[in-house]
């Protein structure tokens, strides 16, 4: 087996132009499940701001549109829970006598029934993108 000597300029060129660093992705295998769940919990604890109040017609229209198109919605309620904004994110599954049924985490046992009169704001997500990214954009407007 013959090993050729490589010039340093070739190595530098490779790392500057061809090599794609995967960043934190390469370390994913070293994290324990406890670590990843703690990181997810920290990320979820981002403080949510109150969004502008929408009228009932707008709320109903957005929820109907999300239901028809199977889009994820973020529903923010008027009431605060423990001085924090109460909200739900998920798919609109339909409605019953009590209100609109929202399924969180794609699991039937995570269905939440929300009364329309208690809704402050509804955000419909195109392409079911992450609600936090678009929520930040809405707050800046």
TrEMBL record:
Top-level taxon:
Bacteria
Q: What is this protein's name?
A: DNA-directed RNA polymerase beta subunit
Taxonomy of origin reads: Bacteria, Bacillati, Bacillota, Bacilli, Lactobacillales
């Amino acid at each position: 087996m013959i090993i050729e000597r490589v010039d340093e300029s070739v190595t530098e060129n490779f790392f500057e132009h061809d090599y794609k660093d995967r960043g934190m992705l390469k370390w994913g295998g070293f994290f324990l499940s406890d670590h990843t769940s703690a990181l997810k919990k920290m990320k979820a604890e981002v403080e949510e701001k109150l969004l502008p109040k929408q009228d009932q017609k707008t709320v109903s229209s957005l929820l109907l549109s999300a239901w028809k198109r199977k889009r994820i919605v973020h529903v923010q309620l008027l009431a605060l829970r423990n001085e924090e904004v109460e909200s739900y994110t998920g798919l609109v599954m339909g409605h019953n006598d009590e209100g609109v049924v929202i399924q969180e985490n794609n699991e039937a046992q995570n269905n939440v029934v929300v009364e329309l009169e208690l809704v402050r704001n509804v955000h419909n997500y195109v392409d079911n993108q992450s609600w936090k990214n678009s929520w930040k954009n809405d707050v800046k407007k």
